[in-house]
Amino acid sequence: MAVRKISLKGTFNTRDFGGYTGMNGRQVKWGTFFRSDALNNLTEEDVTILEKLGIKTVVDFRSEKEISQAPDILPAGIKYVNLSPNAPIAALASGNMHDDQSKIAKLVEIAEKNEGETYFAQRLDEMSEEMRKLVRESFSNKKYQAYLRLLLNPDNLPILHHCRGGKDRAGFAAILVLAVLGVSKEEIKLDYMQTKNNMEERNKKRMKEYEQFTNNETVLTYLSGLMQTKERYFEAAYDEIEKIAGSMDNYLKQVMDLSSEDINTIREYYLYE
């Protein structure tokens, strides 16, 4: 029986994104595509679970700094690919205790300046802009192109992709995969928003950690907003796609550099008959 949520002790947002309805009513294959938060806290039992899932490739969308601070723990023999799209706001949104204190100290310093209120007011929807950058910037495009090209070789799958929190950089990758497979925007949004439930307890814990370093409400509100999974972040990505290419189909072909033949090949590989 297929299970959406993969229960690992060392993660909070690992899941199979099979089962959605793709092109011509064909279902996305289970046990093929997985998304997650970072894999640096996996237990031996978790590693065994990944082995049993048969995962062949892990794609890590984190930055070099994030990786050096918290390298993945993986089963032996797995192909590891780093494709960081250069998304500093997403990295900030899912930071850890190692860099929280200095990060928050800088934010408090800004908040206490005369222009602090204006600074944060202009950044209340910063994550929406980050999603737009993932869509439009050339450097980011190349990383997601490389990810999608991995799907053209079935020997690379099952595949698991992740960033630190599994929300934004990994979320955009999941949007693209499901779109290639012909899943509707409505179902893709359901998958994106599932992260909200998965991260609820983790976000409460993170806020308590932040509160150890400051009681500045402006800073705490800003950090809380970055951690949230909001529909407008998802919609920002789609809006930018339509601005650039007119439609998701055009975006996949013109910006992600997939031919009609590539798209059909991926669908034949990863949709049930």
Automatic annotation (TrEMBL):
<dbReference type="InterPro" id="IPR026893">
    <property type="entry name" value="Tyr/Ser_Pase_IphP-type"/>
</dbReference>
<comment type="similarity">
    <text>Belongs to the protein-tyrosine phosphatase family.</text>
</comment>
<dbReference type="GO" id="GO:0004721">
    <property type="term" value="F:phosphoprotein phosphatase activity"/>
</dbReference>
<protein>
    <recommendedName>
        <fullName>Protein tyrosine phosphatase</fullName>
    </recommendedName>
</protein>
<keyword id="KW-0175">Coiled coil</keyword>
<dbReference type="InterPro" id="IPR029021">
    <property type="entry name" value="Prot-tyrosine_phosphatase-like"/>
</dbReference>
<dbReference type="Pfam" id="PF13350">
    <property type="entry name" value="Y_phosphatase3"/>
</dbReference>
<feature type="coiled-coil region">
    <location>
        <begin position="185"/>
        <end position="216"/>
    </location>
</feature>
